[in-house]
Amino acid sequence: MVQFVFHLSLLLLTTLSLLGTEDNPSSQGEGNISEAPVNRQKSAYVIPIRDQIGPPILDILRRGMKDAIEQNVDLVVLDMDTPGGELGVTLEIMQEILDSLGSWEGKILTFVNKEAISAGAYIAIATQEIAFAPYSQIGAAEAVSGGGREIDPSMKRKINSYLKAKIRNFAGSYKYRSQIMSAMMDANVSLVIEGEPLRAADGSLIKKAGELLTLTGEEAVKTYGTPPQPLLGIGVFQSIEDLLNQRWGANQYQLIKMEINWAEEIGLWLNGVAPLLLSVGLVLLFIEFKTPGFGIFGGLGIGFILVFFASKYVAGLAGQEELLLFLVGVCLVLVEIFLAPGLFLPAMLGLALIFGSLIWAMADIWPAQEITWSIGLFKKPLVELAQSLGLAFILGYFAVKLIGKTPLGKSMILEKSIDGGANDLNPNLVIPDSIAQCITELYPSGKVDVGGHLFDARSNSGRIEKGARVRVVKQTAFELVVERLK
Question: Rounded to an integer, what distance in angstroms lies between the CA atom of residue 473 and that of residue 403?
């Protein structure tokens, strides 16, 4: 069993290492790097924000930001081209950006390449700087329902009020950001800059009454007021490399591009069903515990939980430390089951490490962040763990019912006693010091026959072979504790 866990965990760790180095060399600062000297003064890390904004984009940004902070880069560039997406996920992304700013001294810049529409506009506004590619555009950020339908007017007023306040918090010293974003999200907002309505190059109004604001890159970088300030952007650039060349000079920086390979895409999808993975893994381990010996259910259960950790790793939540902590906990539980049954201390410590590692793997902790121990930090992980345990209880109940009726289940889990009686632990049938016979191998759990009735039993003296005679040492609500007859 221990060897099985070791080899399986080693395989996973090797896979994770390959994902982080060979398949994604640029995430380690190699591969997709500009042809500059090895010793560069500045560095930039590019995170792709593509297609619809949803949970996978949140995971990509979180992982990329944490990788960039660990490498202590000077600038993180969000390479954005999105038509929008889920508002809830967008707000989480904005919060992730805010949380990251306290973790290192670098800056975050959005490069609009080519669209930052709806949710993309909110994310761009949350970053410290915005730059634009030629023929790019940003705006049209009205909140709508998941199906694209109009929201109830009273609810929309509440949402807009909340979002406008949030945008003001992110606007900081940028004079026009809050006003521009309000016009992008609310068609009823009039847009007047320095006493004049915004006009396009041909003199026409950019925002007419009842329309949402959408700006081109050229319009977004125009300056107004005294001293002059741009509406949103710092400039229009042909590419990210062109932007960095103008900022730091050609060949004076290191460019690291985050690439998402097919394995990571699968991992991001699996993170969306992480509670289900954990639930299935726990159920399989429970079934394994209720069957003698160690077999397919235990292997699959550990496999599902390792996949759970792998999905959290890809999502930027878990590292190898959480997996190691989990495996140490499993080993302590195995010590209790196989080497020191009845001692309880290894099992209690092992379970604490197991559940602690699961919570740690779901907590969003930033590199070099000073951890403030509070319920808020672990609220979401605790809710997710509670969901997994609740789902595991439901799945476990039906799994035990269904498996017991299958040929495979009947061959592994004996349901009836020898004389056809029910497999109930009736206190009137068993008394301590009763003599029993092992119907299955106890390793350490299995089945024993006491006076023609079959019971779940656990050995407190190591492995006992099938057919051996044992003595009942203790009776609990769930099983008998037995020892080998001397």
Answer: 30
Helix residue ranges per DSSP H, 252-372: 262-272, 274-289, 296-314, 320-334, 345-362
The rounded distance, in Å, linking the Cα atoms of 267 and 304 is 13
| Tens-digit pLDDT profile for residues 184-225 | 999 888 888 888 888 888 888 888 888 999 999 999 999 998
Q: Which residues pair with 111 in a beta bridge?
A: 79, 131
pLDDT at 107: 94
Closest CA to 125 of 178, 50, 63: 178
Closest CA to 392 of 308, 274, 291, 278: 278
For residue range 1-17, what is the model confidence (pLDDT) as tens digits?
333 443 444 344 334 43
Quickly count: other Cβ atoms within 10 Å of residue 195's Cβ.
6
CA diameter of the chain: 101
Domain boundaries, the chain: 25-257, 267-410, 414-484
DSSP 149: P
* Confidence (pTM): 0.64
Q: Which residues contact 169 (CB under 8 A, 6 or more apart)?
A: none
CA–CA dist 328, 128 (Å, integer): 42
Of 115-119, 168-172, 259-263, the range with the lowest mean pLDDT is 259-263
Q: Is the peptide bond before 227 cis (omega within 30 degrees of 0)?
A: yes
pLDDT in tens, 326-384: 888 888 887 876 676 666 788 889 888 888 888 877 776 656 556 666 666 677 788 87
pLDDT tens digits, residue range 218-256? Answer: 999 999 988 899 999 999 999 999 999 999 999 999 999
Cα(453)–Cα(416) distance, integer angstroms: 8
The CATH superfamily holding the domain 414-484 is Nucleic acid-binding proteins (2.40.50.140)
3-state secondary structure (DSSP) of residue 104: coil
Query: Could you tell me which of 148, 132, 224 has the C-alpha nearest to residue 180?
Result: 224
- What is 25-257's CATH topology? 2-enoyl-CoA Hydratase; Chain A, domain 1 (3.90.226)
State how far Cα 148 lies from the chain centre.
27
Mapping DSSP to helix (H, G, I), strand (E, B) and coil, where does residue 67 land? helix
How distant, in Å, are the alpha carbons of 125, 326, 379 from that of 318?
A: 28, 12, 16
Per-residue pLDDT at 22 exceeds 50? no
Strands 453-459 and 445-450, sheet pairing:
antiparallel
Torsion 35-39-44-50 (CA) sign: positive
Rounded CA-CA distance 151/373 in Å is 38
> From CA 277, how far away is CA 309, in angstroms rounded?
10
Question: Which tens digit of pLDDT belongs to each residue from 323-338?
Answer: 888 888 888 887 876 6
CB within 8 Å of 79: residues ≥ 6 apart: 46, 47, 48, 49, 50, 111, 113, 240
